[in-house]
Predict the structure.
Amino acid sequence: MFYHDLLKKELFDYINSEYSKKNIKEVPNKSSFNIEIPTNKKFGDVSTNIAMVFAKKMGLPPRDLALKLSKHMNKENFIEKLEVVGPGFLNIFFKKSFWQDQLKVYFKNINSFDYCTVKKNICLEFVSANPTGLMHIGHARGAVLGDTIASILEEVGHKVTKEYYINDAGEQIKKLKKTVKFHLKNKNNKKIKTDDELYPGDYLKEISKKIHDQALSERMLENSIIKLIMNDIKEDLLKIKITHDSFISEKQCSSKKNIDEILKKLNQKKLTYYGYQEKPKSLNNESWERKKLLLFKSQEHGDETDRALIKSNGELTYFMTDIIYHQKKVDKKFDILLNIWGSDHSGYVKRLQSALEQLNKKENYLFEIKLTSLVNLLDGKQVVKMSKREGNYVTLREVVDKVGPDVLRYMMISRSVDKKIDFDFEIVKSKTKDNPVFYIQYAYARCMSLITIYEKTFNTSLKKIDLENVNLSNLILSEEIIMIIKICNFFNVIMKAAKFYEPHRIANYLFDIAKDFHAYWGLGKVDSSKKIIIDQNSNISCSRIVLILSISQIIKKGMNILKIECPENM
RNA sequence: GGCCCCGUAGCUCAGCUGGAUAGAGCAACUGCCUUCUAAGCAGUAGGUCGUACGUUCGAAUCGUACCGGGGUCGCCA
């Protein structure tokens, strides 16, 4: 067992038995206390706040409980020293041999770790960019985030369906078709008049060139335009290693059968009525007319106004098709619906969630929405201006062609979703420490180089080493112990990243461990006895190279989960 | 104006969901290449965690109010 679970079990068992001795009816909560690696070394290898958490319930001062726990733990032969400090922290120092053994525990687990996941069937919807043009850099964030979250969830053992919802219906598609038709008619017209009626830019001109048969029916024309654009989108996604398991069409969601079904349900629950809406604040023109519409009573559920389900022309609103689409997911027995949206949809979250809440039992599903903040594109210090209206936005493919998929992927997930990202071309293309991807990859390459040198020097192969029984008693430097502790914490980081849908935890962890490795490597520059490979000492070299092996595996596995390459030479 | 998000070192961000003396990277200054990849390492300096109350043994973290920044408020998607 890793130290974390070992301590957690040992300490918690004690609390549990004390609870029953004292006849406390309440069941103690195992996840309410922490086992943490303190930043300050003097607070122990690990530290726990367990005494402060349970003291009150047990009618003891925290320090007294901590002392009792300390006495209890002191029986263990792997403990070097225990300290009760401050308000009741229990700081634990392990024997070095314990950590050496923990590294062996790591090798036992690396390829078959049990995350103890309660397996869920998850529908993860992401990207879902409108098929009206190429994806831009803003789309990349949601795309990479969604794909990486999927990868993490699968790593811990969930079943994930990656879904793309194609908005192939509605006003935007009408405008799209109109634009392409315009280009088909004005083939030789160099100067294209753009107005609000048409999409700007040359991209749709290119699309129109690919439509050979101009006598297509309206329906066929629309389908082939969307197909062409979706192909481009899929191609771009593939460039950044993203594929989806399923594509759901909005048009198909709004079949008559589906509409009738959902309306029936909504009406049964008395959630709709025919009524009027206020004039929207954002519309200043005179064209707005007050009309009677079928509305959803969202105001009763926290929304600021009731929302339209069916437009005055008889078509469905986006909201209505979205209800149908998401209800279908619940009907398909997904346990968790997870959506990745841009933060510009924040106002829409409550509306859709409350609609689903009205239609379903709470225990049947979980509906979570992650909103991603903006991406600023910088060139050096300058923000690259983008204007969608003029059609001069920077496309995803341009960026990928410049920087490659790895750096892009890392940058898009390396910070929490609700912080904006400054995507700086200068940094991202640099091959220095400024660029965290290179820094981590460089650590991996150095590890691999060390392994090669080790094998050559001692004329052996790492594969010959029995990793679960190797002698590691030479690993005694504080730098070595710190790395072992962090290595043993790897799976916890993955679990937390999965639990909170936060890939940046893994990115930060990998950077951190790369930093520790580089520091360790640097020791040998100053003090040759701290070199990893010492020609005259095969024992030390062997212990150290095994540590290096574990670091390289961690980096490789972590980067694999993030779908970022780790070259062996740089 | 309503709702959502953000405010931590000069800049960009972490901070393990309430713990101890708040951490990294960049930028600045100082050292380290005949020696395992200097694409690197070590060191110095830099903070009333936006402000004020409150909850708590204990707050950057939770609550309320205010200040500042961004997003959003359609029968668009």
Observations:
- The mean pLDDT of chain A is 92.
- The domain at 3-94 of chain A is CATH 3.30.1360.70 (Gyrase A; domain 2).
- The CA atoms of residues 431 and 438 of chain A lie 6 Å apart.
- Chain A has 20 helices and 15 strands.
